[in-house]
């Protein structure tokens, strides 16, 4: 089969890690007989520099006319002084909104061979495997009004936390569907002791639960959830939450895997192409040094194969290749123990590709 993938490398370490992802998809194509056609487009700071906007129209067109989108990261100090409409992050938020990518799936898995990479205790981590389902196109990120204005007592600023019942219901239903495929436990995270938004969120979750009698629904306040994620991550199976809470909780959850460089994500709409990106950012502090961990991006490719292309065997093979690479002891700096040997970004990419290619040689023998 032939598939069209739009690649948005973006800024900082984005180009380094997406290069490894393209290499990996080519290895998958070679092994399983698929043809991946890559079309590259600009987003974020690089697009501001080249085209004067973080989300050029042509980038949107490429994204709308493909099977799946692979994104590196956007942003960096170079664009700190840009106006809001020229900020790199505006490009990322823009593409999420324009493609209606309301469901953001952020799995956090503890790899047995990385138990010592985390600063958390082994027995707290061992066996933890959770999925954060983050609402991605509403809430504080997009609510209007959003403004800075002169008030009676000087400058004042407004951001608006806005959700419609329909927006809440579609993400809650998506999370129930996903929990059903996992261990059938859904924790809805909110701030219902304070926010009217969260009170509606809770009501909707309770109402929708009647359609999923096989899934156990519980509620947790977000401040407690942040603590529980590092205290006892094994209590969670599937978590559903609104946009801002999900952003923060997913970075916290990355610590149970050992590094932010390990966390993949999928952003899905009801029907169009999905967007796949690591949870981490453009890591300007290590950009251009070939030391970033590409595994979050490679694991995002597994999600791309699974959710957008429906290639289950290929997705499993990528996840297995990552597992094997870690079990064989290969480490980038962020997941290495003190004094442990490390590999570069491109070496890590080569090793994972090699696992795919050699697994297929074994199968055909
Ligand atoms: N999806 C995205 O594109 C995205 C996500 C988060 C942040 N950002 C942007 O990235 C820029 C930098 O943000 P930040 O520094 O707060 O967060 P960051 O995620 O870029 O980096 C946080 C820390 O994690 C490390 N890190 C991140 N990814 C890594 C990897 N693959 N391998 C090894 N170490 C890694 C970095 O070196 C840094 O020390 C900002 O402009 C921010 O808005 C973009
Ligand atoms: C860069 C930023 C806009 C983005 C977000 O807040 O959603 C990032 O932190 C993420 O987690 O994908
Ligand atoms: Mg984030």
TrEMBL record:
Pathway: Amino-acid biosynthesis; L-leucine biosynthesis; L-leucine from 3-methyl-2-oxobutanoate: step 3/4
Binding residues annotated for Mg(2+), in chain numbering: 223, 247, 251
Residues carrying the site annotation Important for catalysis: 141, 191
Record keywords, A-Z: Amino-acid biosynthesis, Branched-chain amino acid biosynthesis, Cytoplasm, Leucine biosynthesis, Magnesium, Manganese, Metal-binding, NAD, Oxidoreductase
Cell compartment(s), UniProt: Cytoplasm
Biological processes, Gene Ontology terms: L-leucine biosynthetic process
Protein's UniProt keywords contain Signal: no
Binding positions (substrate): 96, 106, 134, 223
Domain of life: Bacteria
Domain Isopropylmalate dehydrogenase-like, residue spans: 4-352
Binding site for NAD(+): 76-89, 281-293
Keyword Mitochondrion on entry: no
GO cellular component terms listed in the entry, alphabetical order: cytosol
Enzyme class: oxidoreductase
GO MF: 3-isopropylmalate dehydrogenase activity; magnesium ion binding; NAD binding
Cofactor binding note of this UniProt entry: Binds 1 Mg(2+) or Mn(2+) ion per subunit.
Membership in a protein family: Belongs to the isocitrate and isopropylmalate dehydrogenases family. LeuB type 1 subfamily.
NCBIfam families the record matches: leuB (TIGR00169)
Function: Catalyzes the oxidation of 3-carboxy-2-hydroxy-4-methylpentanoate (3-isopropylmalate) to 3-carboxy-4-methyl-2-oxopentanoate. The product decarboxylates to 4-methyl-2 oxopentanoate.
Name this protein carries in UniProt: 3-isopropylmalate dehydrogenase
């Amino acid at each position: 089969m032939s598939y069209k993938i739009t690649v948005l490398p973006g800024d900082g370490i984005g180009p380094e890690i997406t290069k490894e992802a393209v290499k990996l998809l080519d290895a998958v194509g070679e092994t399983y007989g698929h043809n991946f056609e890559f079309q590259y487009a600009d987003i974020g700071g690089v697009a501001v520099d080249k085209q004067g906007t973080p989300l050029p129209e042509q980038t949107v067109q490429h994204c709308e006319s493909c099977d799946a989108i692979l994104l590196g990261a956007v942003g960096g100090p170079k664009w700190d002084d840009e106006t809001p409409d020229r900020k790199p992050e505006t490009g990322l938020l823009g593409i999420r909104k324009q493609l209606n990518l309301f469901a953001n799936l952020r799995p956090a898995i503890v790899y047995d061979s990385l138990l010592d990479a985390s600063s958390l205790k082994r027995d707290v981590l061992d066996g933890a495997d959770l999925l954060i389902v983050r609402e991605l196109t509403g809430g504080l990120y997009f609510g209007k009004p959003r403004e800075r204005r002169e008030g009676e007592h000087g400058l004042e600023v407004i951001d608006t936390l806005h959700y419609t019942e329909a927006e809440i219901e579609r993400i809650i239903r998506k999370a129930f569907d996903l929990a059903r495929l996992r261990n059938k436990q859904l924790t809805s995270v909110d701030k219902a002791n304070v926010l009217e938004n969260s009170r509606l969120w809770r009501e909707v979750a309770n109402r929708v639960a009647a359609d999923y009698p096989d899934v156990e629904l519980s509620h947790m306040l977000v401040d407690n959830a942040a603590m529980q994620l590092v205290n006892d991550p094994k209590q969670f199976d599937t978590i559903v939450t609104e946009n801002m809470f999900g952003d923060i909780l997913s970075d916290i959850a990355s610590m149970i895997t050992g590094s932010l460089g390990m966390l993949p994500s999928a952003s899905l709409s009801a029907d169009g192409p999905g967007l796949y990106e690591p949870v981490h950012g453009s890591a300007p502090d290590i950009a251009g040094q070939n030391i970033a961990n590409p595994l979050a991006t490679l694991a995002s490719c597994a999600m791309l194969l699974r959710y957008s292309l429906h290639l289950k065997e290929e997705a499993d093979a990528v996840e297995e290749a990552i597992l094997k690479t870690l079990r064989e002891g290969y480490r980038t700096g962020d997941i290495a123990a003190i004094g442990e040997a490390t590999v570069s970004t491109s070496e890590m990419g080569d090793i994972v590709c090699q696992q795919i290619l050699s697994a297929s040689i074994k199968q055909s023998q």
